Amino acid sequence: MANVVLVTGVSGVLGGLMARTLSNDPQLERVIGVDAVPPLHDMGRAQFVRADIRNPMIGKILSQERVDTVLHLGVLATSRQAGSRSSQKEINVIGTMQLLAACQKADTLERLVAKSSSTVYGSSPRDPAMFTEEMTAKRGALGGLGKDSVDIETYIRGFARRSPGVDVCMLRTASIIGPGLRTALSDYFSLPALPVPLGFDGRFQLLGLVDAAAALRLAVHGQVTGIVNVAGDGMLTIRQAARLARLRTIPVVAQSAPLVQQTARYLGWGQFDAEQMDFLCFGRGIDTTRMRVDLGLEPTMTTREVFEDAFRNGPARGLLDAVTGGSRA
Amino acid sequence: MPEDQSKSRPARKTAARKATVKKTERPTPGRNGSESTRVSGRAKADTPAGQTSTASRKRPPRSAFTQPSRTAPERALRVVPDPVVGESGPAAPARIQDQPVIPGLPGMTIEAAVNAAVWMLRAAGSAAGLEGAELERRVAQTLAFVRRRLTGDYDIDDFGFDADFTEEVWLPLLRPLYQHWFRVEVRGIENIPDDQGALVVANHSGSVPIDGLMTQVAIHDAHRRHRYVRSLGADLVFQSPLVGSLARKAGATLAANPDAERLLASGELTMVFPEGFKGIGKPFGERYRLQRFGRGGFVTAALRAGAPIIPCSIVGAEEIFPMMGNAKGLARMLGFPYFPITPTFPLLGPLGAIPLPSKWIIEFGEPIETASYGVAAAEDPMVVLELSDQVRETIQQTLYSLLSRRRSVFF
Q1: Which residues contact A304 (CB under 8 A, 6 or more apart)?
Q2: Looking at residue A274, what is its pLDDT?
Q3: What Pfam families does the record point to (chain A) (predicted)?
Q4: Domain spans of chain B?
């Protein structure tokens, strides 16, 4: 049973929310939040320790505070949060490696919960309609969060093998959408006009921030181990979503994605991630049977509700303003 | 169209009252030269919609945009227009720039475009022999559909199947081909269950997979519950632009065991062509001779779900594009499994894409029960191959008997 929880990445939106949620939990004795940068938001009762998980100091915290559960959320979804793709990768992959090395030495540790992403399944025309947890990508992610998530999962699986005494649970979440949260998909829907692949219309699922927090909370307290897919019910296609948000679409040839990325940046439209193109073409669905049966989560919001909530009124301006303080025109 | 001068003032006022202000304006120096004078547009409600649209197209729109505030008095839009003094046209002008305008067509308001579309729908409906309330109902139904599509207000299922699109666009598009071109005759539709899952297994032929589309219409139209059939397609389908996303919307998904089992487990009527490209791309000389059924993956899926297998024999599809040759080099270059050469293609160019109007018969055979074998039988190659052979034999025999009774290819 969780008693002392260490949460990494608490300066992120999800990390901060989890620190607050868990610190209000009477079952827990203490919640320690760790991040390389201090959080700008309220952390509740949680105690913040400024530490980079890439630094061996994290091991000391684990043993001194007698942490029994680690909730690893220190994974950045987009490269802009880190400054560049290489530092994103550094924080995501090297950070996880260091954290796992520290976890392996900590003898009080009983449980590790990590947030992975459904991007590990990739996107290809040979994909099944819905990926279950035991399936692997037909065409793996080429870069960005997808590739990092694959690497992170490999290290976590290795850790689980080497430390049989620690229960490991990984949640592969669909793209999480919530106020202030930036993902590649929310960046995409924040563009003034959406480049859509000509002749393709990928399907996607979303997960509301509240449901993501509920899933992580259940994973921290529960007994479930292994991989669990987490997503809201129902699906949307890219074009349907554009119509729901009243966004204009610009059909582009799928192969021209890098060009579109550069053009979007040149025109100052915002971020279009070329690696997303496969996803926009073929989309992805994940099966959430384990989420319901093993984790015991009933999402409160469907994919469409999450989307409409975030993008219906003035496409994502609210989201962007929450991040940039409304500086964007 | 009623002329401005011929209209009496009170009549126009009521008309304007009926329509919330929807006026067009144009400066008409030719009429009396004064700049303040303008001929007000007409309220749209009292004229037929199609005429309104022509009216709005006739007027020179750009000038209305360049000098809007000078010509139009400052006034909020209201239901009853204010009286305007010194105007040849009696009713008040409303400013066109207040209305949403279609980009690229400056003079064309969305309102006018919609009215034009409604008028065209009515015209098309009456041309198709619809009248009165039925016509109005159909027009309203179509408009509601367009609204749902434009606002994204529709649902897709886990496989990307879009029932709204299939019902309103996809099947109506295929129906003329089904009813008038191939004149499809359906037999044994009672073998399709009313609501449980079942696996329809059919022969594949005709160079282009039109047989799948026709069977989809056949099951939807002939079955008393109007069931949607969910086809399993090759990955090439989902790689191809447009084709892939259309196929998903119309209910197809990847021909792989996870998807087939998921469909059957959720009680869907699933259709598969086990011959795949071997069947559809075979030379005309081998018509109606079933190709290999592969490893019987479809049987495994049916066994796992305990769903019955319904053999389906399609006669007529072989003759739509008789494949005389196969340009293998070209096919390999383009990444196709075959490149058909038919008597008309590529000789006649695009005309070669018109299928020959053969007469089709689709016969659904008696369901072959699989539930009694148990789920474990899915792992037993003996059972799987035996069932696969049984299905193949049934289809082949039905094809022969249908062919022997067929009078001619085209009638």
Answers
A1: A234, A236, A244, B155
A2: 87
A3: Epimerase (PF01370)
A4: 9-109, 118-151, 163-320+355-405
